[in-house]
Amino acid sequence: MKEKGTKTKKKVLKWIAIGLPFLLIAFITFVVGGSYIEHQNLIEEEKAEYPAPGKLVDINDDGNKLHVYTEGKGSETLVFLSGFGTSSPVFDFQALYRKLSNEYRIAVVERAGYGWSDITDSSRDIDTVLEETRTALQMAGESPPYVLFPHSLAGMEAIYWSHRYPEEIKMIMGLETLVPEYYAQTEEDPTLSPVISFLARTGLIRSQPNVCRDNFPAIQKGHLNEEETKIACTIFFRRILTANMKDEADLLAANSQTVLEQGKSTVPFHVFISNEGGEKWKDTLSSYSQATGGENFILDGEHYIHLDQPDLIAQKSRIIINNANGY
User: Fold this and answer.
1) Residues 6+ apart with CB under 8 A from 247
2) What φ, ψ does residue 202 adopt, rounded to 5°?
């Protein structure tokens, strides 16, 4: 009897060992699948509750739209272009453009896969990105010439724009702006975490306490009120490492080489630089700016310098723009 009981026990343990992995897989599938469905439902609800505040334009006539937010009036149009991975450019730049829109027309272009813009299948090569930006602005009713305010990665597009269509750009006001000369020296590519991407796609990231508030610079630095924070977080949860952002990272080396071959900007390249950047970063940006006849300012702050020093950047930008116009 004892031998028979031992055999039965071993048999049960064997079936448990075989079945446990399947039960675990089934449980994980249930949790992840349920999270994904809930995430998609929440996205649709959030889109309906918080529609785009600007204009959605179908630039390729394929149903996918880009978002262009505008405000203010003035003879100058300032165009804001976000850095890599910025989930909501409209809210990211708000602290700065609100200090300028009482004197100038401002426009924030959200690239494909950013903010309220759709995620698309269009290539992220520099020519396609530039033409999409130009077309989006035109379809939104904005006309050149522009003063460009690019942050970080968008510096490549701004410089390329000045080469391809110099009559459309009056000057560039760089915000910790990447230039191809720096990339050529370092070949630093954005870090993309597959774990974060998985959590974002499945919606599991929503279960992480304060993940939006802790990873959204404009919220971290206290520039958004509670209602704006709530809206910004709905964008954050659907615009983390999107397919378009990944494609931008994959094409950074090729795009940088394309811009590098054009030479330096054909318009004055002014730049605001963080004092927390490395010496190579500061020296490269300062030298680049000087070579184009632009001014450079090293300010106390981090990479999102427009969130650390919006008042000072607005003040100095206003002076530079007015001086260029002979005021």
Assistant:
1) 123, 124
2) -85, -10
- What single letter denotes the amino acid at residue 213? R
Are 81 and 150 in contact by the 8 Å Cβ rule? The answer is yes
How many Cβ atoms sit within 10 Å of the Cβ of residue 184?
A: 13
Element (H, E) at 256: helix 252-260
pTM, two decimals, is: 0.90
pLDDT tens for 274-304 read 999 899 999 999 999 999 999 999 999 999 9
Cα distance between residue 220 and residue 185, in whole Å: 32
Please state which CATH number belongs to domain 55-192+241-324.
3.40.50.1820
What 3-state DSSP class applies to 122?
coil
Strand-pair partners of 77: 105, 146
The string of pLDDT tens digits covering residues 242-272 is 999 999 999 999 999 999 999 999 999 999 9
